[in-house]
Write a structure and sequence with these properties.
By secondary structure, this protein is an alpha/beta fold. It has a single domain (2-248), classed as Rossmann fold. It has six helices and 14 strands.
């Protein structure tokens, strides 16, 4: 089984914090994973994405997956922060998605993923942010929705430093591709005349069969950097999963090669496969 669940929220009624690119993100990822990687697709958007529906759909997918299945959960929405009530966060705050009718915390995710069976490949793609409050420029909007008004002496929001799950990656049973690092925002940006989440756009642009998740992450970082985005998506999870072929594809290993130029001629360089142990040149 290969299934993807996608949730996208542009419309946050009465909040003044609507987004513009989330549904486009959803269309892109559903199209690419469905057509090019053979995923069965299910999606919900805007007012459909309530806390109850989100919990029920993610739980149903996780519980139904068995050894050898690949499941993907994609979210393009606002992110937010909540005061930590069970004291399991070093900084005193839980990270959370902001769904149509309220937040869904990382603690709630943990309670669902506890039931993930051994041998299931589970990938989260989270195009949202959990810190930061500023708009990057006129065409890029931070995907962050504050829930409480903690301010400094001059009335500005206090910067909250979030811990990421680096220190617990060895205990994770899934991969997470985040929109940005712990102190950044994810852009809702105008790209080639259409609004998109920068992470989802870059990730889909750089996704090709035969590469690993590690390589895909590097390619996505390179695209964002080359297009002047300052957010730094993170790849989190157990190290052994980083080198699996993306979404069940077979990893294609690149051959090493030498480039030889024929001096004195206008021919293009000739590409010759490089042996694993090339002979040493003679001495003298």
């Amino acid at each position: 089984m290969k299934k993807i669940l996608s949730f996208a929220i542009n419309n946050y009624p009465g909040s003044g914090s609507d987004l513009q690119g989330c549904v486009n993100d959803q269309n892109n990822i559903i199209n690419i994973l469905g057509k090019e990687f053979g995923f069965e697709t299910t999606w919900f958007k805007d007012s459909q994405v309530t806390r109850n529906l989100f919990r029920d759909e993610v739980s149903k997918l996780v519980l139904s997956a068995v050894n050898g299945d690949i499941i993907v959960i994609h979210v393009s929405s606002h992110g937010t922060q909540l005061p930590d009530v069970n004291l399991d966060e070093g900084d005193g705050y839980d990270e959370a998605l902001y769904l149509h009718d309220g937040p869904f915390s990382d603690d709630e995710f943990s309670s669902i993923l506890f039931h993930l069976k051994e041998g299931v490949i589970c990938i989260f793609i989270m195009d949202c942010c959990f810190s930061g409050t500023i708009t990057r420029d006129i065409n890029k909007k931070a995907k962050f929705k504050p829930l409480f008004s903690e301010v400094d002496g001059e009335g500005y929001p206090v910067e909250i430093k979030f811990r990421r799950s680096r220190e617990i990656s060895s205990g994770m049973n899934h991969l997470v591709i985040t929109g940005c690092s712990n102190l950044q925002t994810s852009a809702d940006a105008l790209i080639n005349g259409s609004y998109n989440g920068a992470l989802t756009y870059a990730a889909m642009k750089e996704l090709v069969p035969g590469i690993t998740y590690r390589e895909w992450h590097k390619r996505t970082l390179k695209w964002l950097s080359s297009h002047k985005y300052t957010q730094t998506p993170q790849l989190e999870g157990p190290e052994w999963m980083f080198d699996l072929g993306v979404f069940g594809s077979t990893v294609v290993k690149q051959k090493k090669c030498w480039l030889l130029k024929l001096f004195g001629k206008k021919d293009s360089p000739i590409k010759i496969d490089k042996p694993d142990n090339p002979p040493k040149p003679p001495i003298g």
